[in-house]
Design a protein that fits this description.
The protein contains twelve helices and three strands; from the N terminus they run H-E-E-H-H-H-H-H-H-H-H-H-H-H-E. The chain is mainly alpha-helical and 348 residues long. It has one domain (2-340). It has a three-stranded antiparallel β-sheet. Strand 1 and strand 2 (46-52) form a beta hairpin. Helix 1 runs parallel beside helix 5 (144-169) and helix 4 (114-135) packs parallel to helix 10. 46% of the residues are buried. One of its GO terms (molecular function) is phosphatidylglycerol-prolipoprotein diacylglyceryl transferase activity. The chain crosses the membrane at residues 51-71, 83-102, 114-136, 213-236, 242-261, 273-297, 309-329.
Length: 348
């Protein structure tokens, strides 16, 4: 019962956030969080560095996914050392992969890809887990299937929440509704996203400011967050191999299908490299429980997982991760600003 209440509480929070995001984030107001003055221009104004809500929501998604991953691993009996030995190398590989894979596929230096990072993460995760278990005394409680189940669950929730970043920046956008299949036009009539602001990516890349488009970011958020929360409940019941199979199948198939409704540049070819990556992860992920077994025998303890999170060191680590992700992904390279400062005489 506690597990169900916990998951339902998370579902309510995520649902409320998504409802708010769909109403507000396509607006021009919600692209930039702040602008930091860097250098003074000859005319007296300052050249500014834009800090984006894309970075804010991406960092929040990263930190949320990391918190869920730690919670699940500790609940499943993995020691603190085991969690660190598995999670830190994984994050260290996935963070640069999000940019390097995008640069390889899209040939753009200032682009990130969750799909590329998740592909790299899933491929290396079983072997990082095996290596960590081999190096640590007693294996530190690490089990490949259990670790993969936790990772895929955290990834699904994290990517679902991370799509809010895409709404705020106007990237990863859908096709104009009038170019969508008839079934999509019927379902989304009056529900499409209309982005405002010439600095949104959909505006400067495709010229579709103020044009209704398929809300693919919102639908992806619903599908992946919903899948992740179902997997979280199954994980807490000890159904680890089924979590792996469900999460890798839903996320892989949805990533492949959803790109047919997207209109941003995804690389060359009728089927993009990201779609091939998504398809490749499905048989790979399905095979892991068959190779490494069904997962940890003992049922996870939600109380142990929550207690592991509610410690000063862990909270500081998650805050540090959030700040690092914010600085890495929130500094806009495709937009700039000009700042002017003055004294408000009436307030003196």
């Amino acid at each position: 019962m506690n597990e169900l209440l916990f998951v339902l509480g998370l579902a309510a929070l995520c649902g409320g956030l998504l409802f708010w995001a769909c109403r507000h984030l396509p607006g021009e107001r919600w692209q930039f969080l702040a602008s930091v003055p860097l250098a003074k221009e000859p005319g007296g104004a300052w050249r500014g560095l834009n800090i984006t809500y894309y970075g804010f929501f991406s960092a929040t998604a990263y930190a949320t996914a990391a918190a869920l991953l730690v919670l699940m691993l500790r609940a499943a009996g993995v020691s603190d050392l085991g969690v660190a030995a598995f999670v830190l190398p994984l994050l260290s590989a996935c963070a640069p992969a999000s940019r390097l894979v995008a640069r390889w596929v899209e040939h753009k230096p200032a682009t990130f890809t969750v799909g590329g990072a998740s592909f790299v993460g899933l491929i290396i995760a079983p072997w990082l887990c095996l290596l960590a278990a081999y190096c640590l005394p007693g294996g530190a409680g690490l089990n490949v299937t259990t670790a993969l189940a936790a990772l895929l669950t955290a990834y699904a929730v994290g990517e679902g929440l991370g799509r809010l970043a895409c709404i705020s920046f106007g990237c990863c956008y859908g096709k104009p509704l009038d170019q969508c299949p008839a079934w999509a036009q019927r379902i989304m009539a009056g529900r499409g996203f209309v982005f405002h602001g010439h600095t949104k990516k959909i505006a400067y890349e495709s010229g579709w400011e103020d044009r209704p488009v398929f809300p693919i970011q919102a639908v992806t958020s619903i599908v992946l967050t919903g899948c992740g929360l179902i997997c979280l409940y199954m994980f807490l019941l000890g159904l680890h191999q089924y979590v792996v199979w469900l999460a890798v199948t839903v996320s892989g198939l949805w990533r492949f299908f959803s790109e047919t409704l997207r209109s941003d540049y995804r690389g060359e070819g009728r089927i993009s490299a990201y779609q091939w990556m998504a398809l490749a992860t499905i048989p790979y992920g399905l095979a892991m429980p068959l190779i490494f077994g069904p997962g940890a025998a003992a049922p996870p303890s939600l109380a142990v997982g929550l207690a592991a999170l509610w410690r000063p060191g862990m909270l500081l680590a998650l805050q540090g991760l959030w700040l690092g992700a914010m600085l890495y992904m929130g500094r806009s390279r495709t937009t700039a600003s000009t700042l002017c400062f003055h004294v408000v005489q009436s307030e003196l």
